[in-house]
Amino acid sequence: MRYYLDSSLFPNMWQQLREVISSGRRVYYFTRPWKWKEVRERFREDVKAMIGKVSKTDKGNAYLLWKVYQLSLIKNNTHRYFRLLNIVDVELRPLLMKETLLYKNLQRIRNASMAGVDVGSDVKILEKMTEDIKREIVDKAINIIPRFIDIAECLRLNIDDVNGLTGLAGLLIYNKSTSYQKSVKYLGLYKAKGRDGRKMKKYNCKARRYLIMLTNTILWKNGEYRPPRYRDFRKILKTVIETRKQTGLAGGAGV
Fold first, then answer.
1. What is the distance between the terminal CA atoms of the chain, rounded to a whole angstrom?
2. CA-closest candidate to residue 133, choices 106, 154, 171, 173
3. 174: which of 37, 108, 201, 207 fits an S-S bond (Cβ 3.0–4.6 Å)?
4. Are the C-beta atoms of residues 216 and 207 closer than 8 Å to each other?
5. For the segment 41-76, what is each residue's pLDDT rounded down to a tens digit?
6. Each residue's pLDDT tens digit, 148-201
7. CB–CB of 18/44 below 8 Å?
8. CB under 8 Å to 46, separation ≥6 — which residues?
9. Distance CA 240, CA 62 (A)
10. Helix 162-174 and helix 87-114: axis angle, to 10°?
């Protein structure tokens, strides 16, 4: 049996997904959330005929998801719109989501402090929480991502490089492609030409953030204290992809 989900994977869903996947069922999620507006407009009349209204409802969303799936079957490109969730996703994605929330709160508190707001001990508390969740992510990645340490060693990272290892874990989870060119596009590592090109440029913000984290750590370890450039991102991305292939992770083994 297969289940198909939209891209709204909420924190309270992961325990249920763990149980479903552990029971042998296959779960896929929609990978292009930015297409929802286009999909809703395209099938607007179909949804109205199906449920009697066009406003957002669970039933309407399920119908739209089914329409996308049916069209992808006809065009033989289901892999472009739906991606299989595995136990590694279920274990690590909730931690990565928590880390992102903590990081955003920490940045907000730091900015408030810089503006002269008395934040008390909030900064230190959030710094400790953020560091703890990163270590939890690294420990979990070492245990459940096959050959994770081998990939880290190829990047010259050691167990104390918590930021870099967190970035590597996030990158492996959010970018599963073993194609370098597709990954460059997925992460937006190209210069869009013209104003319209920059406006229309779309990429996965989560995957890119963890690549930035990984790249910064590697640059700092090499004594390069500067903002990373596109060529730095592409170089490290290529190393990760080639190492995945060499260590037998191509094709989604484990991740």
1. 21
2. 106
3. 207
4. no
5. 888 888 888 877 777 777 888 888 888 888 888 988
6. 999 999 999 999 999 999 999 999 999 988 899 989 988 989 876 665 555 556
7. no
8. 63, 67
9. 36
10. 130
Considering the entire predicted model, what is its pTM? 0.82
| CA dihedral sign of residues 179, 245, 214, 104 | positive
| Residue 20 identity (one-letter amino acid) | V
Cα three-residue angle 32-38-42, rounded to 5 degrees:
130
Q: In the structure encoding, which two tokens stand for residue 98, read together?
A: 């928590």
Give me the DSSP letters along 145-192: STTHHHHHHHTT--TT-HHHHHHHHHHHHH-----HHHHHHHTT-S--
